[in-house]
Amino acid sequence: MKVWSDSFADNAAMDAQFAFGKPDAQSHVALSQNKNPHLTWSDVPAGTRSFVVICTDSDVPSQGDDVNKEGCEVPADLPRVDFYHWVLVDVPASVSEIPAASHSNHVTPRGKFGPDALDGMRHGVNDYTAWFAGDEGMKGDYYGYDGPCPPWNDTIVHHYHFTVYALDIARVPLEGRFGGDDVLAAIKPHVLGSGSVTGTYTLNPKVA
């Protein structure tokens, strides 16, 4: 499968309009437009009955000791883990494109509604759900797309992988609230093919 975006080139920087956070000279970071980027795909395997779209940041610090702290930097050699930014399932086989800003175009404190999405699709929760769990003003279930907001003091650029999976089933066998790990486990025996496009983003002017 081939996957691409009109919103950014593969392995190139994403614009701040597609991010949760944007650089701010006074406070390091401010809320951004949080639009989902445009995605489209082709060369779909025969027998495809639906698609799943998942976006992960593969560069999230495995420890938060230095994250967003004045006078500190997140070292480049710190082990990194994945962070789910978007989990979209039950995309009809007739669909080959997701327009920009069609699933998200602003930051929603406490998270967007879900799991129901457009045209019978469903959203899973992304990892801002856990990130904001201790914040009284922001905690909630974050369904759908919420874009990049890497630590403003990270010494590496983060990579955001938008992967489209073609499945041999019309509906992912999960109900209610689910996340990225749940979806990947559920679809494993049903994947006919996949493709991805990667965008980059940083809030650290020293590495931009």
Please sum up the structure shown.
The chain contains 2 helices and 11 strands, in the order βββββββββαβαβ.
Outline the biggest β-sheet.
6 strands, mixed
- The assigned CATH architecture is Alpha-Beta Complex
Shape: globular
Total helix count?
2
CATH topology: Phosphatidylethanolamine-binding Protein
CATH superfamily: PEBP-like
Which class in CATH terms?
A: Alpha Beta
Oligomeric category: single chain
Residues in β-strands, percent: 25-35%
Give the overall average pLDDT: 97
Number of strands: 11
Low-confidence stretches: none
Radius of gyration over all CA atoms, rounded: 17 Å
- Order of strands, widest sheet: 2-11-10-6-7-9
Overview of the molecule:
With 208 residues, this protein is mainly β. It has a single domain (2-201), classed as PEBP-like (Phosphatidylethanolamine-binding Protein, Alpha-Beta Complex), CATH 3.90.280. It has 2 helices and 11 strands. The protein has helices at 128-131, 180-187; strands spanning 2-4, 12-13, 21-24, 28-31, 39-42, 50-61, 80-92, 97-98, 122-123, 158-167, 191-201. The strands form 3 sheets. It has a 6-stranded mixed sheet with strand order 2-11-10-6-7-9, with helices on one face.
Explain the layout of strands and helices.
Elements: E1 2-4, E2 12-13, E3 21-24, E4 28-31, E5 39-42, E6 50-61, E7 80-92, E8 97-98, E9 122-123, H1 128-131, E10 158-167, H2 180-187, E11 191-201
Parallel strand pairs: 2-11
Antiparallel strand pairs: 1-5, 3-4, 5-8, 6-7, 6-10, 7-9, 10-11
